[in-house]
Amino acid sequence: MKTKQQKEEAVKEGVKKFSSAGSAIFADFSGTKVENIRSLKKSLKEAEAEFGVIKKRLLKIILKENGIYFDPTSYEAQVGTILAQGDISSAAGKAYKFSKEFESFKILGGLDLVKKEAIDANTVKAIGQLPSKEILLAQFLGVLTAPLRMFMYILQEKSKQTQ
Question: Kind of pairing, strands 80-84 and 23-28?
Fold first, then answer.
């Protein structure tokens, strides 16, 4: 049991972390082994995100201090929080892959901390299934350059015919 001073310190630390983060994902981690959680933490570190457990009541206070009116006590299960520095996509991908590997880990939802909006679990999972930002940009660039490449090919073939 934490003392009142320890709880106040945890809230201060949480407010600081949440104010600098861009997004949060909430997950039910009950039944997930500690060594598996360690591997999740390691993979999240690569995505500039971190996993932690904050009591739901304290989490509600932390969110309120940051101007976000969201009630994590509505979740019945134990809630683990993944805080990502940027947008939700990088952390959602790691969390989604982990939830597919370990069925005891369930994504409950998320928050866009910049817009101060809740994100439902299905949306977080859908974002997690998307390819990374770099891959999407490369695919988009390929779509843009394909017509130009075809045009260059046609010009090259025409120039061969006229010679």
Answer: antiparallel
